[in-house]
Amino acid sequence: MRTIDTSVLIVGAGPAGLTATALLARSGVQTITVTKYGGTANSPRAHITNQRSGEVFRDLGIEDRVAALATPHHLMGNNVWATSFTGQEIARLMTWGAGIERNADYQASSPSQMCNAPQHILEPVILEAARESGADIRFATELVAISQDEDGVLATVRERTTGSEYAIRAQYVIGADGGRSTVATRLGFTFDGESGLGAAVNVWLEADLTPYTAHRPGTLYWMCQPGNDYWVGSGTFICVKPWTEWVMLFMYDPADGEPDISEEAMLARARTTIGDPEVAVRIKAVSRWEINHLVAAEYRKGRAFLVGDAAHRHPPANGLGSNTSIQDSYNLAWKLAAVVHGQAGPELLDSYDAERRPVGKQVVDRAMKSVADMLPISQALGFRPGQSAEEGWASLAEVFADSDAAQQRRTALKQAVALQNYQFNSHGVEMGQRYDSGAVIDDGTPYPPFERDPELYYHPTTHPGAYLPHAWLQHGTQRLSTLDLAGRGSFSLITGVGGEPWLDAAKKMAAEYRIDLPAHSVGARCAYDDVYGDWADLREITDHGCLLIRPDRHIAWRSHDLPADPEQALREALDRILARP
Ligand code: FDA
């Protein structure tokens, strides 16, 4: 069997694998990406694209391309609960930071906006970025066997069009091969949690629902039909393309048997939940999926790493699946690049598990809790499994009646809807990842205390381990974010007025360690002018201090002021973070 050598083998070309491929290829790391199917995702699946993912795309230079194809943030806001599109509206909630109450939080925390970018539209954009950096991506190429020893990994792949097999030998492998990961299974990764906790059907369809949605634009329309067959309702419509393309999602209990998912049955369900028999409906695809609550017990085994759904499997509540997958790769790629290029010791790679596994655990737990937290809506409406349509309609009528009892039920419904903020405005969960590992140097100060609910609200801080806070700056006539001064595969440094010794130190260290280490003065009338004074409020260091920022924009180390020997201080910090001998 012929054998090809490479530095990093990436298995899978979903959001996680494509992001890892694009980032590594841009860093000049030799990679081969193999993926089982003949192309990128052939259905919408993940769609909520949060600000942290937007910032990764910004770093890759593709944020504008994604935005051009996605449904913009201002059309994402309304979460509507109704008996059907033509039927009675039950409740509405402004989501994803689009409501007045939360919009400022979202705007203030990032240069990137959330958008609705279905996976089949998003993946080709990341693929294009990877290809522009010269990545070697092999479609219809399935991993069939893999082993590893101290020196590397050896994989056998099969070309699905010809059936021929060949071997790939690599220094490292990234398992980005989704919820049924062959890398995880073959290399003996174990998982904590439970699987098979429920099931759902996705029906991708075309139907022009403009008359029922354009006046209340949103991403999710929950059709709760009285007498419905399961508590989540009779069909949640996910906007794929405003307002003509949708995914109709419905849950079922496998214990009651598998549902009829014939085209006829799906058309009937779509027509009932739309409520207008005149609307033409065309089914494009039907698929089933399972609810799992699993996270890998380790994200790294020797030379193998799991990213994305290969590492964490959970329901789509909170829209964190592909976002977390993209962000796993953002964390891992620069570390692998530094090690492969000989700029860092292999111990740096230990920080991947230490940093991303707690995030994976938080995400699967949050998503699972959000699913359970939808139950109070059904309860407030008095909807129960097995109830007749008449009973359901009567119960609903009571909610909106003119009586004291009805008023109490409306209060219960309002509270149940407010609970959904933990799913749809969970800004702290989306943005607030903080790392504690060997790739972060704690400065001995405590994190500032949370002033608001840490799940709902993002608290920016420059404490080592946190993500670089965003502030708008002026550079000549250009407006840019502090986040634009970091990333692109290299460490960077930010200081303030009078921080020139740090700039000199960074230049010397970059030359000595043969790394890119751009350093910037950010402050009042500096090259990067803090014209609004926002950065002064966020930075938590003096003008003479500095922040050392990792390529994934997390703070690696900070110095509150100027030490006697800034070059030595910076050297010690870099040596520790990069695990240099
Ligand atoms: P993904 O599964 O996308 O890709 C796996 C890749 O591995 C594929 O390219 C496949 O070809 C390849 N592969 C598999 N086995 C292989 C083998 N043996 N050899 C070679 N290649 C192999 N997420 C989110 O963030 N927001 C959201 O709103 C939603 N909504 C949503 C709705 C629904 C209905 C579902 C089912 C899921 C979501 N998700 C989501 C979750 C999201 O779809 C999921 O988290 C991501 O696709 C995970 O991306 P990955 O790249 O990890 O795996």
UniProtKB/TrEMBL annotation:
Keyword DNA repair assigned: no
GO molecular function, a single term: monooxygenase activity
Domain of life (superkingdom): Bacteria
A Pfam entry, by short name: FAD_binding_3
Residue ranges occupied by any FAD-binding domain in the UniProt entry: 5-367
Keywords: FAD, Flavoprotein, Monooxygenase, Oxidoreductase
Protein known as: FAD-dependent monooxygenase
